[in-house]
């Protein structure tokens, strides 16, 4: 009997083993598994891709007994009309008035979206909380601001995040790991600025922070051997103006967020190039540190700040421009080429009913209007004169081309043939067209006539030059002599300009420049002329590789960059300064204001929501990182990041909730 019991037990054990082995070998597809959120490997540039679609919340609510998340049929994400979400500033916000530095009205503006957009993204306000100041959390618990910032998750987000075994978005006392945003803030420049308001949010200028807050410093990646240097100030934004739904309710509401940046680093992703600070109250406007670096590379070969005579004169700050925070629906759309966030002609929506000009108007011969503008003109010329002259007059390869048999003799016949072609088939043909001419043709003829005369005179002078210098050796000798004369002329012109510069500095620079004073300066610069002959390449591979050119110029001809800065850049600098705004001529202001309202490449500055990526696209669905700042290239601010890109600063929801802004990350994307 004992043997029978043992045999039965053995048989039962064998059956259990077989069952367990069968279960282990069973294919995973035999058992429905919850669909986990996709995991995307992080690339070096952290490019973001379009994420999975989210099931519409109202569809889920319509089902009395919804099926498990993994069994729901795929449903495209409902697109809503892109508009600006209304934000009722009269509702109570989660800012304690007693904690604010001073009572501040909420200037968040709104552009009414379609009813569909409002219904799809209602702005929810978190419950009020009377806890401690978030800047000083109690030692025995999480910061009290978290309790008042917790908001109800959208049903669609919960379905996606909880698809795996019915889980929900994980969170800790320091905040959720993912959120799904419904609102984005656009930083819209005030055009014209409202000088009667207390400072709230602005770009450029100087920060207003308490004396105890140090100006951020960091080691510059492009100059590691120089040690820590101050970062340049970019923006100060009033958190009290944030709508409750921004960042899904996370982040600070009292105080200000400040952004500092090193714009000289070409890569734009080093954590040392930026700092984000949160301060509880305003301080006095902080004077910049004495060792504040320039806002662009000191290499004056770049196209920025051409009106500065030396690198020491490149400023360390940008112009100060107040901004309004405009709350908009967070949505994206497929424009046929990529997933985009900003609709076309977005500036016209931001400035509804006000003129917007994407292209800066032609200003013609508009003169400088302040003595500082006159200084820009002189300094721009001094900068060009300071550039080293050519080491020699005619390069060896150019001399070889001139010495080819028949090369010099063929120059005039070749040029006369080109001129004849221009007069018969090109624009010059209008000069010989028979009457009657249409009105547009008459205007073209009147414009071409003096050009044709100048071309003919230049050709006659070149022909006379070749008669006097018929060989490559003779030409090279004359060009070298002219090069030496040019060096002397440049030195004497620079000395004359330094004397003029001293006269300009004897005036208060930010005062009106009398038109008579500008006319006298202009005429003096135009009278200082110099002519020389030079040899330039046309194409090394052609039978006619070099060209002999008579170059005649005056000091005024070298002042184009300075005149542009004296008019356009100074008008922008002055317009945001209540003490200097009156210096800008009304007619000039009226012509420039539409351009100041425009968005460079239709890309706004943003806080929260999707980013307007250049090398990446927005990711839909719950986010593991949120947009802290988007700072785009901006002609009105004279910001050109790289080749016209934008900085994107991201932070995780947990770090945002905990106020750990030093954990944020930055990247520069360029076209």
Q: How would you characterize this protein structure?
A:
This protein has a 7-stranded antiparallel beta sheet with strand order 9-8-7-4-10-3-15, with no helix packed on it. It is elongated. With 671 residues, it is an alpha+beta fold. The protein is built from 15 helices and 18 strands. It has helices at 2-25, 57-62, 115-120, 145-149, 155-161, 346-350, 371-385, 396-402, 411-424, 439-468, 472-505, 515-527, 560-575, 586-596, 653-658; strands at residues 171-172, 175-176, 183-189, 202-203, 217-219, 228-230, 232-238, 256-261, 274-279, 321-329, 333-334, 339-340, 529-537, 546-554, 605-607, 626-632, 646-651, 665-669.
Question: How are the SSEs ordered, and which strands pair?
Answer:
Layout: H1 2-25, H2 57-62, H3 115-120, H4 145-149, H5 155-161, E1 171-172, E2 175-176, E3 183-189, E4 202-203, E5 217-219, E6 228-230, E7 232-238, E8 256-261, E9 274-279, E10 321-329, E11 333-334, E12 339-340, H6 346-350, H7 371-385, H8 396-402, H9 411-424, H10 439-468, H11 472-505, H12 515-527, E13 529-537, E14 546-554, H13 560-575, H14 586-596, E15 605-607, E16 626-632, E17 646-651, H15 653-658, E18 665-669
Antiparallel strand pairs: 1-2, 3-10, 3-15, 4-7, 4-10, 5-6, 7-8, 8-9, 11-12, 13-14, 16-17, 17-18
Helix pairs in contact: 7-11, 7-13, 9-10, 13-14
């Amino acid at each position: 009997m004992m043997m029978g019991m043992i045999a039965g037990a053995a048989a039962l054990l064998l059956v259990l083993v077989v069952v367990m082995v069968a279960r282990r070998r069973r294919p995973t597809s035999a058992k429905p598994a919850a669909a986990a959120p996709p995991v995307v490997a992080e690339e070096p540039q952290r490019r973001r891709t379009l994420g999975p679609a989210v099931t519409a919340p109202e569809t889920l609510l319509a089902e009395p007994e919804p099926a498990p998340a993994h069994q729901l049929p795929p449903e495209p994400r409902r697109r809503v009309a892109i508009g600006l979400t209304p934000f009722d500033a009269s509702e109570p916000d989660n800012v304690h008035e007693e904690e604010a530095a001073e009572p501040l009205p909420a200037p968040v503006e709104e552009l009414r979206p379609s009813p569909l957009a409002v219904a799809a993204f209602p702005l929810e306000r978190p419950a009020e909380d009377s806890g401690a100041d978030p800047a000083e959390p109690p030692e025995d618990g999480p910061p009290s601001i978290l309790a008042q910032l917790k908001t109800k998750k959208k049903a669609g987000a919960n379905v996606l995040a909880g698809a795996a075994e019915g889980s929900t978005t994980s969170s800790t006392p320091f905040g959720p790991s993912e959120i799904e945003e419904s609102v984005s803030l656009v930083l819209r420049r005030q055009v014209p600025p409202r000088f009667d308001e207390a400072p709230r949010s602005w770009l450029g200028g100087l920060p207003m922070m308490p004396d105890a807050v140090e100006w951020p410093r960091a080691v510059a990646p492009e100059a590691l051997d120089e040690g820590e240097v101050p970062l340049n100030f970019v923006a100060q934004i009033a958190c009290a103006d944030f709508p409750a739904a921004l960042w899904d309710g996370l982040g600070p509401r009292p105080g200000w967020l400040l952004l500092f940046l090193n714009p000289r680093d070409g890569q734009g992703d080093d954590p040392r190039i930026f700092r984000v600070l949160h301060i509880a109250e305003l301080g006095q406007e902080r004077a910049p540190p004495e060792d504040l670096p320039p806002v662009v590379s000191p290499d004056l070969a770049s196209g920025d700040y051409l009106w500065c005579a030396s690198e020491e004169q490149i400023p360390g700050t940008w112009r100060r421009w107040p901004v309004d925070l405009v709350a908009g629906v967070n949505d994206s759309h497929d424009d046929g080429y990529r997933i985009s966030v900003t609709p076309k002609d977005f500036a016209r929506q931001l400035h509804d009913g006000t003129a917007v000009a994407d292209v800066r108007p032609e200003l013609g011969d508009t003169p400088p209007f302040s003595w500082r503008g006159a200084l820009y003109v002189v300094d721009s010329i001094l900068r060009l004169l300071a550039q080293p002259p050519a080491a020699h007059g005619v390069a060896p390869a150019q001399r070889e081309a001139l010495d080819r048999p028949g090369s010099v003799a063929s120059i005039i016949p070749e040029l006369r043939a080109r001129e004849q072609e221009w007069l018969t088939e090109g624009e010059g043909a209008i000069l010989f067209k028979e009457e009657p001419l249409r009105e547009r043709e008459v205007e073209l003829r009147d414009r071409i006539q003096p050009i044709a005369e100048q071309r003919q005179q230049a050709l006659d002078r070149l022909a006379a030059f070749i008669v006097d210098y018929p060989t490559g050796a003779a030409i090279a000798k004359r060009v070298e002599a002219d090069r030496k004369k040019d060096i002397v002329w440049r030195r004497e012109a620079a000395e004359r300009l330094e004397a003029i510069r001293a006269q300009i500095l004897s005036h208060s620079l930010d005062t009106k420049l009398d038109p008579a004073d500008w006319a006298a300066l202009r005429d003096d610069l135009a009278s200082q002329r110099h002519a020389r002959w030079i040899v330039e390449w046309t194409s090394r591979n052609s039978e006619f590789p070099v060209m002999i050119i008579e170059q005649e110029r005056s000091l005024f001809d070298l002042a184009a960059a300075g005149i542009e800065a004296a008019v356009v850049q100074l008008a922008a600098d002055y317009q945001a300064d209540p003490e200097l705004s009156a210096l800008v001529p009304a007619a000039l202001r009226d012509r420039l204001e539409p351009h100041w309202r425009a968005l460079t490449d239709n890309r706004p500055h943003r806080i929260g929501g999707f980013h307007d990526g250049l090398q990446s696209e927005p990711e839909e669905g719950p986010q593991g990182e949120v947009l802290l700042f988007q700072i785009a290239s901006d002609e009105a601010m004279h910001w050109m990041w790289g080749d016209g890109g934008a900085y994107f600063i991201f932070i995780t929801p947990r770090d945002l909730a905990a106020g750990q802004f030093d954990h944020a990350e930055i990247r520069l994307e360029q076209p």
